[in-house]
Amino acid sequence: MEIATLQNEIRKLLRERNAILIVHYYEREEIQAIADILGDSLALNIEAARTEAEVIVFAGVHFMAESAAIVSPEKTVLLPRLDAGCPLADRITPDQLAQARKEHPDAAVVSYVNSTAAIKAGSDICCTSANAVKVVNSLMEAQEILMIPDGNLARYTAGFTDKKIIPWNGYCPVHHFLTPEDVVRTKALHPGAPFAAHPECRTEVLMMADFVGSTAGIIRFAAKSPAREIILGTEEGVIVKMKKESPDKTFIPASGNLACRTMKLTTLEDIRDALREMKNVIRVTEEIRVPAKRALDRMLALS
Ligand code: 13P
Ligand code: SF4
């Protein structure tokens, strides 16, 4: 079926179901084009908490839809592809977290939102890449912070706080496998182009960056920069928004491997089918939802 026909069908179903379509910047272009809300993890979390729609369709990965179900339990949250997971979120289990708490009894636990509901439930507070430094520094009473599951974000945050940061050893395969050699090669092909990177990239890569920020931060940087060419150390889906804001600029992924496989799984057909059949409802048990909401609310209160 034609893209425009599917898009119209989805918009009609959204109206009929009193639903909104929330879309992450890493999703396919034709899905970003019909979003009610397009954003990074923090913005989408805030919107999921305050929308008045009865149904939230989440074009993103599993932990994002789960977060929406945690903060808005009275809403129906649909994830069009149940297999759209996040390998980073799967890098820590509740048992491993319990063990780490035993090993670091004085540490506060800050969990990146890229984590499962059960991990959020076992955390003191959540963070996103947009607010990690603010969240860590808000924990006045804690001198030690166990940051899970992304080690790169933890090491990056450590540079902006006096607290002792204990990084977990998880990573996002999309950002972590971008190497300094990739960046050197791309910079050589585009001399003078600034390099903007996401804090999920490894430290050696971040040290080469002219700007480090969350997905939305990088998009803002790209719009404001006077440069005509910008090299990107983040998932390539951001280029859709960047091109819209600055059609005359060129955006260059720093490697050919910056597409998140699971973010790209969702298609327009998946969204249409989920809405038509009201299927793939994401549910979180109250036992996990309540403490997970506490950790998310504590973060949202700082936003
Ligand atoms: P942000 O949207 O917070 O930048 O997160 C990046 C990411 O990897 C989402 O899965
Ligand atoms: Fe997970 Fe990385 Fe994909 Fe984000 S980009 S969903 S952190 S694998």
What is the SS-derived class? alpha/beta
Shape: globular
Number of strands: 12
Look at the structure and give the CATH class of the largest domain: Alpha Beta
DSSP helix count? 15
Q: Report strand %.
A: 15-25%
Order of helices and strands: HEHEHEHEHEHEHEHEHHEHEHEHEHH
- CATH third-level topology of the largest domain: Rossmann fold
Q: What would CATH call the architecture of the largest domain? A: 3-Layer(aba) Sandwich
Q: Which strands sit side by side, in order, in the main sheet?
A: 2-1-3-4
Bound molecules: 1,3-dihydroxyacetonephosphate, iron/sulfur cluster
Number of domains: 3
User: What is the averaged pLDDT score?
Assistant: 97
Which spans of ≥5 residues are poorly predicted at pLDDT below 50? none
Q: What is the CA-based Rg, rounded?
A: 19 Å
Could you give me the name of the CATH homologous superfamily of the largest domain? NadA-like
Into which percent range does the helicity of residues fall? Answer: 40-55%
In whole angstroms, how far apart are the ends? Answer: 41 Å
Largest sheet: 4 strands, parallel
